[in-house]
Predict the structure.
Amino acid sequence: MLVFRYVARDYSGDIKEGVTKAASESDVLSWLQGQDYTPISVEIVSIGTRKKLHIPAFQRIRSSELAAVFWQMTTMVEGGITIVEALDAIAEDIDNARLQKVLETILERVERGESVSESMVDYPNVFNKLVCSLIMAGETGGNISVAFRRVAEYYTNRDRLARKIKKAMAYPAFVFGFVIVVVAVIMTLVIPRFTDLFDRFGAGQLPAFTQAFMGVYNVIYSNMVYILGGLLLFVILYVVLYKYSPTFHSICSRLFLRVPLFGKLIKQAFIASFCKTMSNLLRGGVPVLEAFEILSEMTKNDVICNALEKTRENIVSGTSIFLSMATSKFFPNMVIKMVRAGEESGSLWKTLDRTADFYEDKVDATITTITSLLEPLLIIIVGIIVLIVVLALYLPIFQISDIRSGV
């Protein structure tokens, strides 16, 4: 947004001077005429007044932040504010420095005459292909505000789904971390205090259970550096193979979908996202083949990607959408039947939208099931660990008490 200084006469002939922000000189002239002023001179003073920002190299841009941006864009554009003015206002108020820089760059390019979708394409890590396609369809159809609304809904739904999955993972992760802390405290603070006592008592006189426990403890404690190094090496090797080995990546993709409950959750979450996104794309005027190409970029799971690619190939060969999806052997029967009903009635996006709502409810139900099963299971695991330690450490003390009472 440029800053202009103007000089003009009002209806009584008095001179009026001032500064204003506008995208171009012609906008300033139009504004002055709208105020019943006669323009005398208009000149550029400066280009913006924003301070320079320190942009963190790896600052994350969240779906919730992008949803907020596009909801604001929707409200402003529907209220009659230009896209340039809307981008300028949002960029000034946003807290995320990286996203602010991206919006400022897009603003500059739009001011130079580029479309919003063209400006977004150069930021694939921020705006994916789906978003760019929706915006482009809105620009082509002359309903950009509707496109902004659909993008906002997409980011809102994606953020809500991600929160649900994180909720399912949060409790197990917390308890697992708690178990690690408990074991670490026991190994570093509790067991060493009993070691001296056991040495005095005599290793051969200890109960068999305690001897076995101390043997395992000594092996782990003596080789702790190697164990931690091995775990670190395993994690590094896993990440490298997962990223660079197609075969290993494909094996992991199949295994992830077969994990009890969690694999079901992953599949249901994708189906919900697939139906909602497909509905938005078709409603926005994106062709079916392009929609499947975009959807294949939504996941890195090879099983799901292959299913989408196979479906797309069958559609290209002339097969109907629902038969193509059935051939892939990935999509549930209900989804296939709903797609068939929508395809035959000519309201595919509506049926997909309803199907997405149904699977979002199923995701909620699966998360509830996982939480209800894991809570008692993890509590039992913690209890067993504590019980083993207590028995191993206190059995010799009970034995000493029995000997003394017998004497």
Notes: The longest strand covers residues 38-46. The two ends are 95 Å apart (CA to CA). The chain has 16 helices and three strands. Residues 2-46 form one domain.
